[in-house]
Amino acid sequence: MDREPSPHESPSGWSDDAQLGALVRAVADDWRQPPQRLGQLTWRDRIEANRRTCGSRSDGRRWFGRLAGAGLLAVVATVVLAMTAVYLTGPRTDRGAVGASRSPSTGASPLVSPGASSAPAASAPSAGPTPLPALLVNGDLPGVTRVVLQSNGSYRIADLATGTLGPDLPFPGGESGTVLPRPEGGWVCVCVKYDESGGGSPTSLSVTVRAVSASGVGEGTLEVGTVASEATTTSPDFVQVDVHVDGSPDGRLAYISSSRRTASSWRARIDVVDLTALQVVDTIAIPDVDHAADAGGGSWVGLAPTVSMGTDENVLLISRAWYVDDPTNATPGAGTDHWSATFDGTAPVAIPALKPATDPCGDWEQGLIDDASFFVACIDQTGDVHVGRYHLDGIRIDETDVGRWTGFGVNAARTGSALFLWDPQARRLVRYDLVTGRSASVTAPQPAGASDGPLDALGDLGRAVGRWLAPTAAAKIFLQPAIAISEDEATLYALGIDGSVDSFGSSGIDAFDIGGGGLAFKRHLEPTADFISVAVSADGAFVYAAGMGGVDATGLPDSGFKPSVTVFDTSDGSVRLIAGQLTGDAYSFLGPIVR
Predict the structure, then answer these.
(1) Are 575 and 111 in contact (CB under 8 A)?
(2) DSSP string spanning 68-117?
(3) Taking a C-beta distance cutoff of 8 angstroms, is the pair 298, 32 a contact?
């Protein structure tokens, strides 16, 4: 998707009809559905918004089956909307001032900190989109200065005290996977290697668990096994085999779910791995379910299950999404199968198929409320988000519409009985009580000078869609993670997207008080870069934000900006540290807590 001409090339912007038509045709000609690389974002991931826990990884895939057949038409339509909106709302006479900073919000600069260091290396950058220094330290170093960052399947330890990146952690190259913290310190990688490929998609893969110490030294390996398709012929289907990894809340266990195509159906299982002992302690066989009758003229795909636990960690909710791959059908089938299971040796018990009150509605989040009920969150085709509560026998308790989302992803995080849903473009946070079914919301105040008229909203949406179609925008809009909750469950930090300029940059971090069942806006932290990932220290004293390279804080291209990490002091919102010239690509945190 490299055909997007810059709207800054001429004062007339997008007024050339021939140019607009050529762009639409180019996008339509380029629209292809590429093979999936497990462990990495694909177009299926980007279409649907966070199938699983938002926060750690944007791994959503459930909407793909519902949208695959109509993808091309939708893309062309949204491009037309995007370009029209940009033309209607874009400024006409100041295109040359592309490097100008947007007006900052009222209040003190976030770079001002009481007791700031006077060392020359710690001089604060000037206001505006200026490349960040290699190292800026205001006062004492934060409590955690060694953090693991991930980028395109590689994992590196960032030394924030020196503003440098260490070598890759000793996980084999050419593999992708999921990295989880170990209870005793260090990390484990559930690494996936693609052994064979046919028809443009993997047909066989192997799973290995590799452990490293906190200093990055290898500490052991477990070969979990191979997952192989039994299909008699190769095909250009996206998925022949699939793997997904969930960690237990206490960090002791990893649930490695796999699904593979058989000669006539799909078969799934879950290997339970003890991360301390590095051994498989249980295997859960998922009953065969055949959705061939729903496929029509297409082919149905059963993805790897997800696992969530209730108050008793022996009780599990197992959910497996499926979809029909049929590019000739504008409304191919899609759905989710659910099971409840325990570790007592009994087979998982199927939960009857659920039909949300609002249909069609694509599931993207689910979990146990307690040992007798669970919830399913979904977003319908109009953008309304619904949360349904169900008994384990499949009978619906209720369903709540918690609002309409303006952006391109619903970001979620859960703590106790509270499910938090974040709209990064509207900067609106919803708190849904899983026990009572009640919801409340709060919106962060808009900065001074922000425009919110109808044409501005249309222009914001159009520009967002246009940039979302490009790979760099996809990396920006799908924040990983977008939400971090302090371990005392008192404060939630969320990344926002600024839709008030031609390029969608970061609006910074919004902090909310969520303690005691409340919900209130607390503080806004201005962006020093184009933030794409947020995390908070275990003691809640510092919040960490990772910024993209190649663009400034407003999202405009600027090669002077390198990947960065900014650390804020949560007591007053000041910047404590900036590591502003990291090497490599854009990085994100492993999860919402740094230790």
Answers:
(1) yes
(2) GGGHHHHHHHHHHHHHHHHHHHS-SS-TT-TTPPPPPPSS--TT--TT--
(3) no
Query: What is the tens place of the pLDDT at every residue in 354-364?
Result: 776 666 677 78
Q: Mean per-residue pLDDT for 99-125?
A: 37
328: its two tokens: 């000739």
- DSSP type of residue 577: E
Residue 551: count of CB within 10 angstroms of its CB:
24
Query: pLDDT tens digits for 547-572?
Result: 999 988 888 888 889 999 999 999 99
pLDDT at 87: 39
Q: pLDDT tens-digit profile of 245-302?
A: 999 888 899 999 999 988 878 899 999 999 999 999 989 989 888 787 777 777 888 9
Place of tokens 């659920």: 354
DSSP H/E element including 65: helix 62-67
Banded model confidence at residue 34, pLDDT cuts 50, 70, 90: very low
Report the 10 Å Cβ neighbour count for 315. Answer: 19
- Residue boundaries of the structural domains of the chain: 17-594
DSSP string covering 200-247: TEEEEEEEEEEEE-TTS-EEEEEEEEEEE---SS--S-S-SEEEEEEE
pTM of the model: 0.76
Q: What is the DSSP letter of 43?
A: H
For the domain covering 17-594, report its CATH number.
2.140.10
Measure the CA–CA gap between 452 and 459, rounded to whole angstroms.
10
Q: Are 444 and 521 in contact (CB under 8 A)?
A: yes
What six digits make up the tokens of 52?
């699983």
